[in-house]
Amino acid sequence: MRAIGISLVLFNVAAAFAIQAAAQSVTATRSPQPTGVVFVCEHGSVKSLVAMEHFNREAQEHGLPYRAVARGTAPAPTVPPSVREGLHADGFDVSSFVPQLLRATDVDNVALVVSFDDDISKTVGGRTRYLKWDDLPGVLDDYPRGREAIVRQVDTLIETLAHGASP
After folding, report:
1. CA torsion 154→160→163→167, rounded to 10°?
2. Cα–Cα distance between 120 and 104 in angstroms, integer?
């Protein structure tokens, strides 16, 4: 009788491990939710860069898995001095940042693309969520004002993501 009881316990333990292993296997084979965010402005070194830096810091502080990049539709060769200095005052070092051209592959497998005053809907092509943050104050002429408008948008986006909502 005791041998039957031990056999039943061992069978239940083995069954529990098998169920857990199967569940982990199913979870592991599901493709993870995209966590990339692409910010796009004309030069890839002004509004998109400000948004990227602030987004990445906020996402990290909130423990979110999202990571952003900045891209441009006509990238400038360098970051303008007023933007570099403004971001430096905000605690960011962009001295080695090189603006990059937006490519169609940049929008593959990302959670969100955000453009500033550029219609990139053909590039996005409905492959991911696309937001347009148009008509925000300029950053080159008045960094504090432009930065504040972008940071407000970023903060709202971070709050949405932190509450588990789709961007």
Report:
1. -110
2. 10
**What is the distance between the alpha carbons of residues 128 and 35, in angstroms, rounded to a whole number?**
12
- What digits encode the pLDDT tens for the residues 106-144? 999 999 999 999 999 999 999 999 999 999 999 999 999
Contacts for 147 with CB less than 8 Å, ≥ 6 apart: 50, 54, 86, 90, 139
* Token couple for 157: 């986006």
Q: What is the pLDDT of residues 14-43, one digit of tens each?
A: 444 444 444 444 344 445 788 999 999 999
DSSP-H helix ranges across 2-142: 2-29, 47-61, 81-89, 121-124
Report the run of H or E that residue 149 belongs to, with start and end.
Answer: helix 143-162
